[in-house]
Design brief:
By secondary structure, the chain is of the alpha+beta class. 16% of the residues lie in helices and 31% in strands. It folds into two domains: 1-34; 37-130, Sandwich (Immunoglobulin-like), CATH 2.60.40.790. The longest helix is centred in the N-terminal third of the chain and has 16 residues, at 18-33. The model has no long low-confidence stretch (mean pLDDT 80).
């Protein structure tokens, strides 16, 4: 039986987070049905900087694909066909194809990716545009505001 998360209490105090329910629902379904391959870490390096590291032992640069589209980071891996005459007695190193998707927050940009010792590291940075940063709004006083006078002074 498929469970869903009821986010209706959150909608009372939020505006523009319509996608949130779909993202959480998708994450929940992937968690329940999805594969845990390849394993990965998400690390906060400093404010607005993150690192995603996937364990992709056995994959070469040209067998991996990293793409970002509409706020979703997709990492795919596929091994080339091994045409050698190897005679494996046991094959325990996972070399199966995979696809992992990560939903990114707004204004999240990929600043680089590297493959070292079987670990694919993807650097991310959240760069909020200047017009989106908080700004103080000056409150103006109006010159044509009504002045309140006591009733006794009006009669005089």
């Amino acid at each position: 039986m498929m469970k869903t998360i009821d986010l209706s209490p959150l909608y009372r105090n939020t505006i523009g987070f319509d996608r949130l329910a779909a993202i959480l629902d998708g994450a929940y379904q992937t968690d329940q049905n999805g594969s845990s391959y390849p394993p990965y870490d998400i690390e906060a390096l400093e404010e607005n900087r993150y690192s995603l590291t996937l364990a992709v032992a056995g994959f070469e640069n040209d067998e991996l694909d990293v793409q970002v589209e509409r706020g979703v980071l997709t990492v795919k891996g596929g091994k080339k066909v091994d045409k050698s005459d190897r005679n494996y007695l046991y094959r325990g190193i996972a070399a199966r194809a995979f696809e992992r998707k990560f939903n990114l927050a707004e204004h999240m940009e990929i600043s680089g990716a590297s493959l070292n010792n079987g670990l694919l590291s993807i650097e991310l940075k959240q760069e909020i545009p200047e017009e989106m940063k908080p700004k103080r709004i000056e409150i103006q006083t109006s010159n044509n505001a009504l002045e309140h006078q006591p009733e006794s002074s009006k009669a005089a």
